[in-house]
Amino acid sequence: MRRFILLTLLLVILSALAAEKIDLNTATLNEILTLPITEQQAQDIYNYREYIAFFESVYELRKIESIDQETLLKLKPLVRISHYTDLDDAELRREEIAYLLERLGSNEGSQEGTSDVWEDYLITPRNVNRMFFSDLLNFPNVSPQDAAAVRNRIANQDTITSWRDLRTTDGASYYGMRNLRNYVYYTEPPVSDQLFFDYQFKYSDAPPEEAEEEAELTQEASSMDNRLQDDYEPEIMNKLRIRYGSAWKAGMMVFNRKGEEQLYDRTAQEMWEDGKFFVGYEDYQPWLFDSYLKVYVGNYRATYGEGLVMENTDFYSSRKTGMGFSKRITGIIGDLSRSREYALRGGAFEWKTDKFNVTGFISYDKKDAVVYDSNGDGMFGGDEDESMDNRDMVFSYITVNQRPDGDSVEKLGSENLAVVRDALEETVIGTHLEYSPFIGTHVGFTAYEARYNRYFYVPSTLEELEEVVLGDPEADAEKVKIPDSEILGLYSSYTDDYKRDYRRVYGIDYGTTLDFLSIQGEYAELETDGSFTKIGDDPHAMLTSAYTQFDNLNFMALYRNYDLDFDNPYGRGFSEHEKFDDTMFDKYDYILTNTDLVYMYLNSAQAQAEEGVYLETRYQFNKYLTITRAYLDIWERKCDARRSVRFQGELEFKPFHQLRIRPKFKHQVNRYDDYLDRAVSTTDEYTIQIRTFLSKRDFFQLEYRYNQVEMPSYPYLTNDPTPNEDSIIEGTTLIHGDFINVDYTHYFTDDFKVKGAFMFWDGHGISHWDWEDMEIDFMGERGYKYWFAIQDRISKNIWLSLKYKYKKYKAKVLDVREWDNTEYDAEVDNATVENDVQAIRLQLDWKF
């Protein structure tokens, strides 16, 4: 009986094996030959799969010439088609997170270098069980509480082995863990020896910003005249990044901004000097006290604490809290962003354990600067053979959109100042030391010294400043206001008290996490004539914040206080406005001795000197109603003691998942403490957005916005321009405007989509703004605009984005008038009253 049962089982198994269908996507040639077809037909099936494509259905056999309908019907019950891919682990991740890669690849400005790092982690994640608190905190939307919760779990020998473990970590938010899961593995990565290439090409022929056009009109002899014409050169960027696993990294980038010479017009030496490159190594070192080591040579970014001592980017970001979407990646990373003026080039290392962090960096680079004609020879620069005391002195760093040509320039419409390319040689030596006694708590010390080949000199009084900066000091002195005292706060290394060739900044940062509460901050000083060992006797800046996190509620309170003469070119602290806002560099560029000085404000990256309290919250009442963001900021501007208050609140109503209704209100009052002051202005903004999320990730949004500003009346704007006539101004002036916008996204396939918008606006004195894809666009007073972007993944490794924009608008009419019988020779170009703008932007990403 036993033999009979075994024999029966054997026959059943053999019958099942005999009846098993052959998988055409995995079968060998010999297996295919067992089918009732000819040898040639079997060879054709095998070749099709190997050299053309895997089969998605049995009916694709008809694409093979030798397979007719009769053969197909004969094979159909004998074969099967499995889902098969030849993608490796990294390529599979690229498929799964293509939407994140697309978003990161489009980021620009202050997020550009940060996005490169996050993109690397998406493809080659690190083991979350070997990451330190600061590493976890560097990921988007991961709060200090989230990072501390993960580290505490690992410290308790509870290894995280899956997304389920990560999500159920006690004390961590679901939102933070959902964002973190795309960037980490739970074991050692399987692609440690794989080579990756990322190439990115960007082209943009968008015209210069409206502010640049106005600056050019106001002075006939402006140095911008020969660089901002209708035939300006477009902006082009080429960037290549190479990685070997997750440890070895390298990259290079060459680019030119609008109006600058193209790459093919540059010599190899110029591309080397103006481009960017780096080679880096970073990996876990179990033999070195279980540490993580980074070493970079070339261009790198260094960021610590709250950005008061060191954060080297050219781009300003208002209200940058370091939480949520306004993250700072602290530590050393390779830099292929378009930051140029404040780029660091040299070498850096970072050695980090669970308790200690030791970093050192050194950089040598040449910086563009505003230079005095100190020698009175009509030349700016060109005297490097002279002694330090005989060289032309420097007024300040400056970031211009179109750099001057050559190493030195002659006078450019200025008797005193000119922007000179690579005028300042800067050598930076810095360090960061940090101790963490327990998880979530640290104390750090950051310091750097920048040495120069020229002295910095800034006038000490407004009267002296007028003689240096104004084109006609006697006629325009009345336009110099109290806010211009901020210019006097620039750093001088050549004063009556001392003469030095360096700038030295140092500070202490700290942070601790206690359950649902985290506290962090930084204190920094700029050394002038005080003592290194005494706190508070030099210009200083401080910032401290507290952040609470619950399941449905986040709340932040932040206090900052920056001295007026704390001039740290590498400081990027939280603020409402950038440096020189409301000064002559902002409001009265047409009276300057050289209108290039307007870039001191337009491209300022530093925070304005402020003291204030900022409160921000997010609260979800239920699944239908959420305060997505609400904040209140009360601050005082140090240059003129103007006190301001700003409130913004946004509420989201979600009756069902596919529909969101978002009303938003913003209210700001400048000089709220004295309503009789001439500087009082009140701004109100009302916005309503209706968003719909359609099938297949399609998106449609309708937005309406109304702005109004009550401001003082100004004689030169509202009165008859007759010279020497008395003007009595009473009351206030109301300016207002409307804005209506439609945004849409349509997916034709999973890889091919079109997104765009069209809008109309009418501003009576107000200039509107718009977040256009990943760019911000400032419009004129009245007009319309439409744009669309075609985005397609044209192959497994190539992404293409092509954007077209058309804008027709009326700009402000520039009325150059005579005051006190003073004649201006500037000619107003009336063609700028109405503007037609057409622009093309092309981006190509090749990842393999």
Percent of sequence in beta strands: 35-45%
Rg over alpha carbons? 31 Å
Biggest sheet statistics: 24 strands, antiparallel, barrel
- How many helices? The count is 19
Helix content: 10-25%
Mean pLDDT: 82
Tell me the structural class.
alpha+beta
Annotation, overall tally of beta strands: 34
Contiguous low-pLDDT stretches (5 residues minimum) are: 10-18, 210-230, 408-413, 814-824, 826-832
Distance between the termini: 62 Å
Given the C-alpha coordinates, what overall shape results?
A: globular
Question: Would you mind describing this structure in some detail?
Answer:
The chain is α+β, with helices and mostly antiparallel strands and 848 residues long. It contains 19 helices and 34 strands. The strands form five sheets. It has a 24-stranded antiparallel β-barrel. A two-stranded parallel sheet has the order 1-2. It has a two-stranded parallel sheet with strand order 3-4. A hairpin with a 4-residue loop joins strand 28 and strand 29. Helix 6 packs antiparallel against helix 7 (112-123). It is globular and about 100 Å long.
Break the fold down into its secondary structure elements and pairings:
Layout: H1 2-19, E1 22-23, H2 29-33, H3 39-51, H4 69-75, E2 79-80, H5 89-96, H6 98-105, H7 112-123, E3 126-127, H8 133-137, H9 144-155, H10 163-167, H11 174-180, E4 184-185, E5 195-204, H12 210-217, E6 235-244, E7 248-256, H13 268-274, E8 276-285, E9 291-303, E10 331-334, E11 344-352, E12 356-372, E13 379-380, E14 394-397, E15 409-410, E16 417-435, E17 442-452, H14 462-469, H15 473-476, H16 485-488, E18 502-514, E19 517-526, E20 540-549, E21 553-562, H17 584-587, H18 599-602, E22 610-620, E23 625-637, E24 642-656, E25 659-670, E26 681-693, E27 699-712, H19 715-718, E28 732-747, E29 752-764, E30 769-772, E31 775-778, E32 782-793, E33 798-810, E34 834-847
Parallel strand pairs: 1-2, 3-4
Antiparallel strand pairs: 5-6, 5-34, 6-7, 7-8, 8-9, 9-10, 9-11, 11-12, 12-14, 12-16, 13-15, 16-17, 17-18, 18-19, 19-20, 20-21, 21-22, 22-23, 23-24, 24-25, 25-26, 26-27, 27-28, 28-29, 29-32, 30-31, 32-33, 33-34
Helix pairs in contact: 6-7
